[in-house]
Design brief:
Elements (H helix, E strand, L loop, with lengths): L3 E7 L3 H15 L2 E7 L1 H8 L8 E5 H9 L4 E18 L10 H10 L2 E5 L2 H12 L3 H4 L3 E4 L2 H9 L5 E6 H6 L5 E6 L7 E8 L6 H10 L2 H9 L4
Parallel strand pairs: 1-2, 1-3, 5-6, 5-7
Antiparallel strand pairs: 3-9, 4-7, 4-8, 4-9
Helix pairs in contact: 1-10
Length: 230
């Protein structure tokens, strides 16, 4: 049974999703029309400002909201995995100390610029900085970006002591832009987002149902784990 599946995914699990698609295409011959968006862009699509896909992959909180208003079939949900937030710096920069909340606070205060995106992870980072009690201290040196790609490009071409934050799989996937993962957030500041895949139709095509079953399979679990999605 061949056909085309349209899929929209958040950017954080992109590397794992793309590999799952490649493997599944090799098994079944089914084609995919897949695209990767920020959480804001996904919400716009689901509000009718774009073509609704067969499958959506997004943070669990958003998926549950879409399901509660009938935009997704909640019985189709398949867990993709958890994604943690990490610290990212330029490839030739000295790695900051991240062993404790105090160490991270000092690293942020000592940075020339603090950079993160305005999507899921960025919203958490803004709250974290406020929790650390340094929001006013760093407000004038903070830069926000609409996507992980723009963030990593900016960090990679930066200079001086700059510190950034992003979801770990995205940092790894975009390392070719001259960035490196310095490490995860320490202890009590750890932030995890769970991603879920689901069908946008109550009567999903069999191709869609089969792919969602593949996403939940042990083979896909290994693919996602290699991509840092656990």
């Amino acid at each position: 049974m061949k056909g085309v599946i349209s899929l929209i995914s958040a950017g954080a699990p992109q590397s794992g999703v793309m590999e799952c698609i490649d493997v599944y295409k090799g098994i079944t011959g089914i084609s995919f029309n897949d695209s990767y968006m920020t959480s804001t862009e996904i919400k716009d699509v689901m509000r009718g400002e774009g073509m609704i896909p067969d499958i959506l992959i997004a943070p669990a909180m958003d998926m549950e909201k879409f399901g509660s208003v009938g935009l997704l079939d909640v019985t189709s949900f398949a867990r993709v995995g958890n994604v943690d937030v990490g610290v990212v710096v330029r490839g030739d920069a000295e790695l900051p100390k991240l062993g404790s909340e105090d160490a991270l606070r000092e690293a942020i205060l000592g940075a020339d610029r603090v950079l993160y995106n305005a999507a899921t992870s960025g919203k958490y980072i803004a709250k974290m900085i406020k929790r650390l009690g340094i929001a006013e201290d760093v407000s004038d040196k903070t830069e926000l970006f609409p996507s992980a790609l723009q963030l990593m490009k900016r960090i990679g071409r930066g200079n001086g002591r700059e510190i950034g934050f992003g979801q770990i799989p995205a940092i790894r996937r975009l390392s070719s832009h001259g960035v490196v993962l310095a490490g995860p957030l320490p202890g009590g500041l750890k932030n995890t987002t769970t991603y879920i895949a689901g069908s946008t139709g109550a009567e999903a095509k069999q191709n869609v149902t089969n792919f969602l079953s593949f996403v939940a399979s042990p083979r896909s679990r290994l693919i996602f784990k290699r991509a840092g999605i656990v």
